[in-house]
Amino acid sequence: MRRYVLTGTPGAGKTSILRCLAEHGYEVVEEAATAVIARAQAQGEGEPWTRASFIDEVVDLQKQRQLRASATKSVQVFDRSPVCTHALANYLGRPVSRALSAEIERITAEKIYERQVLFVRNLGFCEPTSARRISFQESLVFEKVHEQSYRAFGFELIDIPAGDLADRVAAVSSVISRPGS
Fold first, then answer.
1. What is the model's pTM?
2. Where in the numbering of this chain does the NadR/Ttd14 AAA domain appear (predicted)?
3. What does the buried/exposed string (b/e) look like for 4-14 if buried means 16 or more CB atoms within 10 Å of the residue's CB?
4. Phi/psi zone of residue 133: left (φ > 0), alpha (ψ -120 to 50 degrees), beta?
5. By C-alpha distance, which of 144, 138, 160, 179 is closest to 17?
6. Please, are residues 146 and 9 in contact by the beta-carbon 8 Å criterion?
7. Best exposed site among 118, 158, 166, 181 by fewest CB in 10 Å?
């Protein structure tokens, strides 16, 4: 089983790439933070990322999704990983919790994800959504924090440059379809 992480700056098009990969038959696992935010906002909480428990809720959902992911396909693509959550904690100025530290230890010790991480580069803008309230300039800072976190944990970043969706999907597919890559 090869599990790849698709990451990058907010608003870079990761979800669109993931949807195309699913249409091409790859097993994909959606981002946990967006789901945690959407669930809280549906219950009337406007900014759940300000809650002290937010990071640990994201970590818990990421772990659940990773463990539940089907083992029937040889390749899985995850929209973000606990390393992204580490970057988020740093970006928000939050301490790295025990739960986050333990999950990062687990994924690195068990080699859950491939060392090659697909890093989707920004498109030159960032459109806000109810879950993504970040300016383009802030997203560039967050992008750098992501790069630093992945490198600090020994991952290799494979750049997926800005471009049209088909080219980006092709770039991702060329990496994840290689046997033993």
1. 0.91
2. 3-168
3. bbbbbbbbbbb
4. beta
5. 160
6. yes
7. 166
Phi, psi of 7 (to 5 degrees): -140, 180
Q: How far apart are CA 118 and CA 123, in angstroms?
A: 15
Structure-block tokens of residue 161: 């440059």
pLDDT of 159 reads: 96
Q: Which residues contact 155 (CB under 8 A, 6 or more apart)?
A: 5, 83, 113, 115, 116, 117
- Tokens standing for residue 174: 């060329």
- Span 70-124, pLDDT tens digits: 776 789 999 999 999 999 999 999 999 999 999 999 999 999 999 999 999 998 8
In angstroms, the CA 29 to CA 3 distance is 10
What CA–CA distances, in Å, run from 4 to 80, 156, 177? Answer: 9, 11, 11
